TrEMBL record, chain A:
Residues 296-326 form the 4Fe-4S ferredoxin-type domain. GO terms for molecular function: 4 iron, 4 sulfur cluster binding; metal ion binding. This is 4Fe-4S ferredoxin. GO terms for biological process: lactate metabolic process. InterPro entries: 4Fe4S_Fe-S-bd, 4Fe4S_Fe_S_CS, FTHF_cligase-like_sf, Helical_ferredxn, LUD_dom, LutB/LldF, LutB_C, NagB/RpiA_transferase-like. It holds the Pfam family Fer4_8. The keyword Electron transport applies. The keyword Metal-binding applies.
Automatic annotation (TrEMBL), chain B:
Residues 97-195 form the LUD domain. InterPro entries: FTHF_cligase-like_sf (IPR024185), LUD_dom (IPR003741), NagB/RpiA_transferase-like (IPR037171). Pfam families: LUD_dom. PANTHER family: LACTATE UTILIZATION PROTEIN C. This is LUD domain-containing protein. It comes from the Bacteria. The lineage of its organism: Bacteria, Pseudomonadati, Bacteroidota, Chitinophagia, Chitinophagales.
Amino acid sequence: MNQPHKEHAELAEKFNADEDRVNWHDETLWWIRQKRDKIVWQLPEWEQLRETASQIKHNVLSHLSEYLLEFEANAQKNGVTVHWAANGEEHNKIVYKLLKEQGVTQMVKSKSMLTEECHLNEFLEKQGIEVVDTDLGERIVQLAKEPPSHIVLPCIHWKKEEIGELFHKFLGTPEGNADPQFLTHAARLALRQDFLTRKVALTGVNFAVAETGEFVVCTNEGNADMGAHLSNVHIASMGIEKLIPKRKHLGVFLRLLTRSATGQPITTYSSHFSKPRPGQQMHIILVDNGRSVHLGKEEFRNSLKCIRCGACMNTCPVYRRSGGHSYHNAVAGPIGSILAPNFDMRKNADLPFASTLCGSCSNVCPVKIDIHDQLYKWRQVLAKEGHTPKAKTAAMKVMAVTLSKPGIFTVAGKMGRIVMRNVPGLVNNKLNPWFKQREMPEAPKESFREWYQKNRKK
Amino acid sequence: MSSREDILKTLRQNQPPAVALPDTQPFAGMKPVNADQFIQTFKTIGGALYEARDYAHVEEILRADFAAFPLKRTTLPQLSGIADTSWFTVDPHTLHDTEVMIAEALFGVCENGAVWITEQQMVQRAAMFIPEHLVMLVSKASLVATMHDAYVRIAELHNGPYGFGAFIAGPSKTADIEQSLVLGAHGPRTMTMMLLP
Ligand code: SF4
């Protein structure tokens, strides 16, 4: 953690070195965004649903301690053991203890961004435990010893030929075969053996219901279910903000989640776990890891409403062209950029600046988080604390002076437009950090202010 | 202090002022049940669908279409003529050779093609996920329009916890390799719906 790490701009530059890949990444994510639009437009009540979801989550945040206690009591009544973890380290130790109790050194795991946040795999590996990630995308990045680059599409930055090579090396598939159908089938066969032989399975949690003590896990692949139903011990790890008050609220959230995430009407499996099956142990770990403190920050607490659909990433012009790894955080993209500074302000000070503040993220967010406003507010907090990314600081200082003096702003804007229209190369140069990898847009002939002055008389 | 007490204490300090829950009632009953929508949607998400008259008709279809798969198992005693029913209490791991599993869901959801089924109808939880092919019976009369209506129905059907329940919508799938959709990830590679009256 103490190693100096590279900032977003620098990592993005690395990703941008391969132009074809960037274009492909950009287009693929935009295609998913369009699929989302298509299905969303079929529901006239969409905005009403988003508003309702946002309000339910607001209610949850204002009663989180009560709902947690209600959930705990109901889950215990259902025969589930409930653990509380203040941070990632405590979470990891609880998992390790449960594995040791079973005397096993292997475990299957389905997708859980929380365990990425807690760095569970690294911790367990050091204790000699082998973790097999069973979501296909996560398995691919795990074999490649990489973290996922997207919360819903973990290997969205990988090309099929590279996956073919990886599988050739690790699963013995024929060299040069890059057919997605064939490769998926090879992974299915390999992972089937893991499902059949592992005694402990860990899953994430999409929603937990205070009223009933049950929790819901959504997958398309069926890997969470294969793991859980064939295990002797099922461990479910969840961030404490995953609670919802009543079961009927799942109607709202399950309608929003997958439409927002991938443009599907629902995931293939929405599994409601309430009791362990006879003879099985079921454990839930409630993880705080900074969330309870975050709740106290009025301007930023809304980010705890996130249901991890990934829509804000798919739509983000910066994410699409810089890749998930440039965010150097378990959760990338716009939402990652407002969550990360909360954990470590110094290390993640560059992330709120990795945005154009276009607001597209806030427009698609199914729980109406004011993501771009929070990015802007983080910048103010970070600037005040003296944490601004190196490259943008000089330019920002000029901007700050300009913006604080309306007279200079008008002149500077006018000059800027004249320069841009006549000698764009002067602005599109290396000294302008916004220019890297992009042509500056054509400058409008007049500013809004000039247009307004001229037209208001009409 | 334990982590539990620590977390709760910090939460109590930091929770914003209480906000009331919104009314979700208006969403229930908002749309009419539309069986055609269910059929179309289920096909769009990768499923196959037959309209069957009764169990005998289901058996007929299975004999014709699933003849290539001798290892059939079912949760339904009505279909014991065509599929094995002696697996109810075996170790679930031994079910991995199941080629076709036939079960009956409680109801279907028109807006997304999903069906709701609980542990009781599954007999064993793994049985719905481990076979190569899943055949699901559901009655047209059971359909609800949206997920809001689905949870109204669930509240009517189950008083108390159901152990395990799931919405299942089509075959298992993944698009993790370059976003190419592949049916058959870890669960069944196909799902066939038998829509009864
Ligand atoms: S912030 Fe909103 S859009 Fe982004 S992942 Fe979370 S819920 Fe989805």
